[in-house]
Amino acid sequence: MQTVSDICVFASVQPLDWSAAALDVAVKVLCSLGAIMLVMCFAGLSVVAERKVCAYIQGRYGPNRTAIPVVAAVPLIGNFLKKNGLMQLVADGLKFLLKEDPLPAHVGKFWYLAAPLMSLSPVLIAACVIPFGAYWSDGQLCPLSAADIDVSLVFALAVSALGVYGAIMAGWSSNSKFPYMGAMRASAQVISYELTMGLSVLPVVMWVAHSSESPLSLFEIAKAQGGLWFCIVQPLSALLFLVAMFAETNRLPFDMAESETDLVSGYHTEYGSFKFGLFFVGEYGHMVLGSSLFIVLFLGGWNPFPGVVWPESWGWAGALLSLLTFIVKIAAMLFLFIWVRWTLPRFRYDQVMRLGWKVLLPLALANFAAYLVFMSF
Amino acid sequence: MMQEIIYFVFCGLCLGGALGVLIVPGYVNSAMSMLVSMLGVAGLLLLMEAYFLAFVVVMVYAGAVMVLFVFVVMFVGDRRDNTGFMKKVALVLLWVGLGIVLGLFEPEILKGGVSEALKSGADRAVPPAVSVAKNYGISLFTTFMLPFQVAGVLLLAAMVGIVAVAKRGTHKKRGGMESA
């Protein structure tokens, strides 16, 4: 076998320094854990935010009574946590963990157990290429991301597209009517909107290709937005990407895969306890990932305002501020997700399909062609 | 050492998935085995530092084409044929035989590409040609212009054909209604 011998040769030429290699691996693992922690924290907090914001929109208080006995008695913090529903978060998490974990007799066991993992893990993998900030090192801007590869945009889109298998396999293995319909809807919807998503990103890549050698890198795209952000330069692309993102993350008004009114609870009807919890976290994780992508592509990444960048001379403070800027932007995007969910009613299924194929796709194609013509002058 | 282990893991995914397509009962299970096989192929491409190609394989084949496969299988209904023992043996033999043929074949173009990618990967200064996304675009629009366009025309023809076939059904129904 030609290939094997080649790889053996390749491995033996590489100088092996085990301590350096171990340190390298440890740093990489820590970076990945950091990215995962960021996504998971936001996923958890957005569950509380969802309840609080929807309560605010509907003129209610939302969760404000759950209290952990000792913590709630701490003078200032206790009351703050209680009133803002942050202890509800702990209660929800514990509920998922401690409830009985049912395994219905009629399910296909292997895929039934694998599906929740398949819906959560792509989100966490894709989070590793998002540049959450930037720092200056030897006069060069470097990304604060776990992995900086030169085609990270393609990586993020490809891996996050695998998340739909969670919904499909959950619906299929549940052996029951409503989950099955939810899974069918999820697969059709994701295929339809992925085209729009890909086409709406292309003008941005073409724009960046003027100034950068690797325009498919998320870091390069964010770096190119030191001046005007791409949501100002290319508003139509941004709008198309945003709509496609709502559809890809299965959020209302594109909540077809689990629309409670006609499908009970869609593809995860047969799930309970922690397996449902994984789907739940997966959905919010997808929102966080989608928001991060949108921020990097159109909202200037870690830059605070259009035309303003954190100056090089600030050193580590600038790096910290860039990370904070990104976090504030993610929070704002999540608020937008929740706001839209509690404002717009759900589309009908045929409306979703018509919007995807007859409105968004032609618009995205026209937009792409228009920028193609515009760029060539 | 590490590269070798990873290489064999991806090879295992690739070949195991391919075997799974042949012998696993149920159409959806077969489709999922194919997904595993494709992820293995993407991993092998990653080892050759053809990052762009690897992610495009994941995005197009795993993320869209296989979703469509599973959708169609679910739409027409999954079936669990009870394949006989002899048939399974024959399929495994086919898998082994194809593997032997491909192993002996060793296409020239593949051999050169792999060894070149690995050799230039040893010194980090120059990235290998396959790992720069731009090179794909340039070669698609220069060297491989004709095959690229022919493939596009073929796909267009297939699409037009499908639309024609699907349209004829509705025409007949409408005609029947009118005559009734």
Segments of chain B where pLDDT lies below 50 for 5+ residues?
Answer: 120-124, 175-180
How confident overall, as mean pLDDT of chain B? 77
Query: Might you state the CATH topology name of chain B?
Result: Four Helix Bundle (Hemerythrin (Met), subunit A)
Strand order of the largest sheet of chain A: 1-2
Question: What distance lies between the first and last C-alpha atoms of chain B, to the nearest angstrom?
Answer: 75 Å
Judging from the principal axes of the Cα atoms, what is the shape of chain B? globular
Secondary structure: helix percent of chain A: 55-70%
Q: Can you tell me the residue ranges of chain A where pLDDT is under 50 for at least 5 consecutive residues? A: 1-13
Number of domains of chain B: 1
Say how many strands of chain B there are. 0
Number of separate helices of chain B = 7
- Main sheet makeup of chain A: 2 strands, antiparallel
Oligomer: heterodimer
Fill in the keyword field for this structure.
heterodimer; A: 377 residues; mainly alpha; 2 domains; two-stranded antiparallel ribbon; 16 helices; B: 180 residues; Four Helix Bundle (Hemerythrin (Met), subunit A); 7 helices; 0% strand
What does this 3D model show about the protein?
The complex is a heterodimer of chains A (377) and B (180). Chain A has 377 residues and is an all-alpha fold. Chain A has helices spanning 2-13, 18-57, 69-72, 75-83, 86-98, 109-126, 152-161, 164-173, 177-209, 218-223, 230-233, 235-248, 260-263, 273-298, 316-341, 349-376; strands spanning 134-137, 140-143. With 180 residues, chain B is mainly alpha-helical. Chain B has one domain (2-127): NADH-ubiquinone/plastoquinone oxidoreductase chain 6, subunit NuoJ (Four Helix Bundle (Hemerythrin (Met), subunit A), Up-down Bundle), CATH 1.20.120.1200. Helices cover 83% and strands 0% of the residues of chain B. Chain B has helices at residues 2-23, 27-47, 51-76, 85-105, 108-122, 133-141, 145-179. The longest helix of chain B has 35 residues, at 145-179. Chains A and B meet through helix 1, helix 7, helix 8 and helix 9 of A and helix 1, helix 2, helix 3 and helix 5 of B.
